[in-house]
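A reminder from the course coordinator: this example appears on the midterm review sheet, so study it carefully.

Given structure:
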């Protein structure tokens, strides 16, 4: 199983869930800022941003490999009422989709 790339709408919803406000530029890149902060950021879906902004909102997570799928990385994300697992060759995509599903109410 491999994960698809998130859409612009999914990326916007995800970072807003993390507390950011979204602002678009004329180039249609999504720029974000935290309320009260004057600086704007492009927030790519990468492990640095996920660990800094999304993982702290979880009740638990893990990244791991499985012997039967040596070229894949798996992620599990937990919130109070949800638990989800995703896998991909890109660990950031696996973690993004696991968090995406776990954050749903």
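Designed residues:
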């Amino acid at each position: 199983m491999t994960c698809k790339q998130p859409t612009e709408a999914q990326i916007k919803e995800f970072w807003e869930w993390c507390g950011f406000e979204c602002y678009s530029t004329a180039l249609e890149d999504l720029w974000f800022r935290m309320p009260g902060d004057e600086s704007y950021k492009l927030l790519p879906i990468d492990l640095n941003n996920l660990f800094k902004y999304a993982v702290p909102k979880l009740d638990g997570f893990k990244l791991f490999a499985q012997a039967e799928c040596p070229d894949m990385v798996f992620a599990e994300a937990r919130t109070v009422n949800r638990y989800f697992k995703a896998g991909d060759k890109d660990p950031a995509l696996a973690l993004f989709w696991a968090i995406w599903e776990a954050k749903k109410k």
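Helices lie at 8-17, 47-54, 91-102. The beta strands are 21-24, 30-33, 41-42, 60-66, 69-78, 83-88.
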